[in-house]
Amino acid sequence: MHGNGALTAVRTTLSEQLATLRGVAVADLPASLLAVAVRQVAGVHVLLPADWEALRHDEGAASRPIPFWARPWPSGTALAEALAAAPPPDGARVIELGCGLGAPSIVAARAGAEVLATDGATDAVAYAAHSLALNQTVGEVAHAAWPEHADGLAARGPFDLVLAADVCYTAQKADALVRLLPRLVAPGGEVRLADPGRANARRFVSAARASFALESHQAGEITLYRLRPR
Fold first, then answer.
1. Closest to 50 measured CA to CA, from 78, 58, 42, 195
2. Which of 51, 61, 141, 139 is nearest to 100 (CA)?
3. Most buried among 7, 153, 154, 221, using CB within 10 Å?
4. Is residue 186 within 8 Å of residue 158, measured between CB atoms?
């Protein structure tokens, strides 16, 4: 899947999915969204826009949100590496919140977990689906912004493992996560969360201790948290 011909085929189907999810014609998609590259993260291959700065410029010019989903951030990489070192058991039910490019979800799927990768950006959902296929793994993707679609996500649970990387970047999201996680995690399940040291992650951790037993360790500049229901 890494040759030029394979990537051309990926771009063709990817462009159709991106256009459908955005509700526009393929011709209206920015070229920077369709110029793809493949990067290895935690032993899996991730499809991503080749030039993030160009995509950010194009999206800004179109008054669209900054495409934070479109690059591998340190927290997502650290979470994926931690999962690769200690994967979920075969058949475990796993959900990733704010999956972005989906590396942790791909690692979990490769281990045999039943994965649901979710993100509030439709473009991320399309890219994550293609990355799952690129790695010959099976997983489901869904367009869901977890603060707004909490009820729908909870209805899909409970899950044995909830994954999230760098999602506490506002106080509102941190508070919403505290409310949502007890509704997602199965008895005996756990949450694995990676954070680069955001102030609102400390807000989340402080509030989450009421419902979860928590442990943490450092992976470079990233803190990896494991939360288990009390």
1. 58
2. 141
3. 153
4. yes
Looking at the fold, whether 111 and 202 belong to one and the same domain comes out as: yes
pLDDT of residue 147: 85
For CA atoms 115, 135, 196, 218, the dihedral sign is positive
Q: What is the dihedral of CA 189, 214, 208, 150, to 10 degrees?
A: -30
Q: Which residues span the domain enclosing 172?
A: 74-229
Integer Cα distance of 39 and 72 in angstroms: 9
Residues 111 and 57 in one domain: no
Each residue's pLDDT tens digit, 37-66: 999 999 999 999 999 999 999 999 999 999
Last residue of a domain, one of 33, 67, 101: 67
CA 229 to chain centroid: 22
Using one digit for the tens of pLDDT, what is the confidence trace for 132-147?
999 999 999 999 998 8
Whether 108 and 142 map to the same domain: the answer is yes
